Amino acid sequence: MMFLLILFTSAFLFPSSNALDFCVGDLGAPQDPAGYSCKKAEAVTVKDFVFSGLSVAGNTSNVMKAAVTPAFSTQFPGINGLGVSLARLDLAVGGRTAMHTHPEGTEVLTIIQGTLCAGFISSTNKVYLTSLHEGDVMAFPQGLMHFQINVGKSPALAFASFSSTSPVIYFMDYAWFANDLPTQILQKTTFLDPDQIQRLKELLGGTN
Questions:
Q1: Residue 28 within any structural domain of the chain
Q2: pTM for this one?
Q3: Strand order across the beta sheet in which 170-171 lies
Q4: Residue 68 lies in a domain
Q5: How many beta carbons lie within 10 A of that of residue 187, not counting itself?
């Protein structure tokens, strides 16, 4: 009995060399809620653990004057299964991220340059609102609606980290107005008048 206990303890403290240290995502395979299946070990290289996309500024010439450059598992296969990811946020003067949520992860935002007005709304409808400056860090809890607005006189840059390899970005305005949901339904559920709804649909690419 004592021998079995020692054997079990040793196996726990000193795991087999065959245990997986990581699971680099096979981007050619389907993705499920747990992530991508693992790339074959012989096909893994150091390049899988390096992503250079966040060094390039995003294109902010759009209606939001903002750009989000993700480094999720789809772009960065080395983080597959590790429970972390990153993104770059570029905001032109007056730029903003529409109200959005990340259903799969908490966000921590670090301000590199510029001044942002940022906040989130709790499940009890309490608003947490503040101004963020270079070097500030703010957490946005998983699943809660939040936003960022560049209120400074120069472009702003921030980097976000997430507690998920694929946190998902769900923009509320686009969910409402960038599709073919009938205006009559939106009128009843948002209390907006049809003209306002049509203007928003035209702005964001929706129909009907």
A1: no
A2: 0.83
A3: 127-132, 116-121, 145-150, 96-101, 170-171
A4: yes
A5: 14
